[in-house]
Amino acid sequence: MKVDVLRQPLMATLMLFAVLAILFVCRFLAYPYPEEAFTGAGTPVEAFLQGLAAKYRTASMIACTLLIFANGVSLSRILSQNMVLSSRSYLPMIFYLVVGCGIWFGGASLPTVLSSFLLIRGIEYFISSFVRRTSFNQVFRGALLVGCIPLIYPPATLYLLAIPAAAAVFRRSGRETAVAVIGGLFPLLTYAYVMWAMNLGFTAPIMEILDGSFAASGGMSLGIGSGLEIMRLIPAAIIGLLTVIGLGSFGITSGMMRTRARTIFVYFILLLLIGGGQLFITAAGPAALVLFAIPVATIIPVFFSRFTGWVPGAAYIALLLSITALNAYPLMIG
User: For the CA atoms of the chain, what is the radius of gyration?
Assistant: First the structure.
């Protein structure tokens, strides 16, 4: 069995994306898992977005779906334009959707999906700053977008580390790093000033973010307590294995990559470590996978870029079949 996973046509990828998205949404609406119902709000911005999503549920789902699609397209564009992959590919779109919404549905959380969008846009600005001249404008814009994330989704505060990581990996000067740090702190400091002007205390925003980060959550259990949990282990294991193989593929072939492509991939590895740490934060539920899917969806395709044959094709088909079965099974028994 030989399947050219990397070079799937755009229309075929869009059709697969649409079918999977519809399946995930239908499963979530008909049979939501208990842990997917957690709606804690740590900041007024998060509470406003969740209230908006609750009041206009259909419009919110449409907006989240469009943002998820835009995020997948952006990841594919980043890898293709910077030649991280050996050829143009739309594969990151599928992996972003599968990781973020397939095992647990994170696409219903408007704050998280919006945070994912801001993080990807920030990454694009950081990458565009990787030039031989100073790029104060690019690093400030990227850091400003990432700095908004804790106000929108407090459990993702750890992603602020993406700012100094970008300064280090993309070799920014001390002045540019200082500008990036200022840009990252600017949203929080502005919000703190507004709270102080309202006599609510300058440190109130920090306490809100901490409360929102360590609030009780349904968590994401991987176990064998039920048939669904057993089925969930299969795609989770395949995704984990493909991620490890993607990292190994980079290690084997990194010497043949261009400097820019190799540097970008190293940055996504750091984001993977940051995202892995974020999943251990108390309040991080299934919605957090929409952010974690960003580095995973960029690391896995390197395996399919560097190796061909029946093994990559079989792994891709096994993932799609297992993720489809996981989401179709509740609909069939319900």
Answer: 20
58-67, 108-117, 159-168, 252-261: the lowest-pLDDT one: 252-261
The pLDDT, as a whole number, for residue 203 is: 75
Return d(Cα 216, Cα 283) in angstroms, integer: 6
113 or 44, which is more confident?
Answer: 113
Structure token digits, residue 331: 């609909």
Average pLDDT of the segment spanning 182-209: 82
**Cα separation values, 127 from 133, 234, 291, 292, 299, Å:** 13, 34, 18, 19, 16
219 CB burial (10 A radius; 0-12, 13-18, 19+): middle
Beta carbons of 235 and 94 less than 8 angstroms apart: no
159 touches 119 (CB < 8 A) = yes
DSSP H helices, 82-135, are 91-97, 110-128
- What pLDDT does 4 receive? 74
Give the number of other CB atoms < 10 A from CB of residue 286.
27
Please check whether residue 118 is in contact with residue 49, taking contact to mean a CB–CB distance below 8 angstroms. no
The proportion of the chain whose per-residue pLDDT surpasses 90, expressed as a percent, equals 50
Query: Is this model's pTM higher than 0.90 or not?
Result: yes
DSSP of 62-80, one letter per residue?
HHHHHHHHHHHHHHHHHHH
Provide the token pair at 219: 């968590």
As a whole number of angstroms, the distance between CA 122 and CA 96 comes to 17
Question: To the nearest whole number, what is the mean pLDDT of the chain?
Answer: 87
Sign of CA dihedral 302, 306, 312, 317: positive
By the 10 Å C-beta count (0-12 exposed, 13-18 middle, 19+ buried), 261 is classed as: middle
Residue 285: CB atoms within 10 A of its CB come to 26
Contact 243, 296 (CB under 8 A): yes
Residue-level pLDDT at 222: 65
